[in-house]
Amino acid sequence: MRTVLVTGATGNIGSKVVGELRGRGIPVRAFARDRGRAAAVLGSEVEVAVGDFAEPDSIRRALSGADRVFLMCGNDLRQVEYETNVIDAAVAEGVRRIVMLSTVGAEVGASAAFADQHGRIEQHLRDSGVPAVILRAGYLMSNILGSAQTIAQTGQFFVPTGEARMAMIDPRDVAAAAATVLTVDGHDGQTYLITGPRAITHEEVAEELSTATGRAIEFVDVPDEAALAGMAQTGMPQWLAEQIVAVFRSIREGVNAHTTETFRELTGREPRAFADFARDIATPLLTA
User: Fold this and answer.
1) Closest by alpha carbon to 116, among 75, 162, 164?
2) Can you say how many angstroms the Cα of residue 196 is from the centroid of all Cα atoms in its chain?
3) Domain tally for the chain?
4) How confident is the model over 22-50, as pLDDT tens digits?
5) Whole-model pTM over 0.90
6) What CA–CA distance (Å, rounded) separates 269 from 79?
7) What distance in Å separates the CA atoms of residue 44 and residue 162, rounded to the nearest whole number?
8) What Gene3D superfamilies does the annotation carry (predicted)?
């Protein structure tokens, strides 16, 4: 193995993939728009290829000498274009494996744009001919941190999920699974759904946060319209707010209600429970 190019390298998942690979002694190159931010997030010793998903030439330069790619980018109206740019460049550069981070429920034509976008990227990847592994992640535990300020100020968080259950997964476990299929042979051509150990409700999330922080934290179910209005008040773009609500709608319909054994089968250990996430990550932020 030569070098793994990690896209989305300064984000919630990508930065952890970089850490997992470096911990295994694998040469890593981070694809990022801002060298200074990449150094601040990843450390100055990590090789950085400065580029932009919208600039195919910069992607090809970043791929020089790399034989594997971790593919993801943040949610964006141009996400299909951005990620297919990477796939096409990888084909041209002779990359030997792409591991794509997708989402539970990914399907061309899905009602939630995020799921539709991932479905189209998955299809392009399969059609490209590059050996590839698709990791579909369940709802991320870290999504609750979008409500961290509200929780810190009011002791409540407002989400339109009702009693829906979600097989939430810790971002650290997503990264561990990604590092495994990037570096271990025998997974090419597979699509894996990785989840946490239990499907839990946001009421249970509130209970675990209360236990971890030592303060009462309450989940408040709200209508979709109220969730949209709340996100608009934070300055979130309308398209993004609408798609987040669409994700919550799919959660209420049960898209992420079931667990899998895939993470344990890939890594040889159990996935972290939400209680672990609350103790290790959420508590310092919620009590700051």
Assistant:
1) 75
2) 13
3) 1
4) 999 999 999 999 999 999 999 999 999 99
5) yes
6) 32
7) 44
8) NAD(P)-binding Rossmann-like Domain, UDP-galactose 4-epimerase, domain 1
